[in-house]
Design a protein that fits this description.
155 residues, alpha+beta, Thiol Ester Dehydrase, Chain A, 23% helix, 36% strand, elongated
């Protein structure tokens, strides 16, 4: 388990995640097929260009999932109970096949759970950037984290 516990996080902390991922056209087409998204901006090059884009746009929900997924090993792997919600999702720039996304997470707020003393709620902001450093997605996420087990709990 490589995630972080509630008590290992601090408000104001920024985490630059070590992994990045290059998005392929196949990733986008597969995701659109699996989710039954028939928006031609995501699969029709001519339509996308006539709409003013450089090419086919990568599906924004795929981008959201990828950005959260990239954060998992460094942040939440094995240390969360649940995602409580996603807020303020923004796509300030498009993502195209061939773009390589990296992610930074900021810890915005924290509070211990009132009903479960071994847990705490953390508000995060994930920012995904392309290979040029341009922000392509921003999302706030509320997560219920586990607290580090006490020594007596671990034995």
């Amino acid at each position: 388990m490589s995630g972080r516990y509630y008590d290992e996080l601090k408000v104001g902390e920024r985490i630059l995640h070590g992994r990045a991922r290059t998005v392929s056209a196949a990733d986008n087409l597969l995701f659109c097929g699996l989710t039954q998204n028939t928006q031609p901006l995501h699969w029709d090059e001519g339509f996308a260009r006539q709409s003013g884009f450089e090419g086919v746009l990568v599906n924004g929900i795929y981008t959201l999932g990828l950005v959260v997924g990239i954060s998992v090993p460094d942040l939440t792997e094995g240390t969360i109970v649940a995602n409580l919600g996603y807020q303020n999702v923004r796509h300030p720039a498009p993502v195209y096949a061939g773009d390589t996304l990296s992610v930074e997470t900021a810890v915005l707020d924290m509070r211990p759970s009132q009903s479960q003393p071994d847990r705490g709620v953390v508000q995060l902001r994930h920012t995904g950037r392309n290979q040029h450093g341009k922000a392509v997605i921003e999302v706030e996420r509320s997560v219920l984290f586990l607290m580090r087990p006490k020594e007596s709990d671990a034995s």
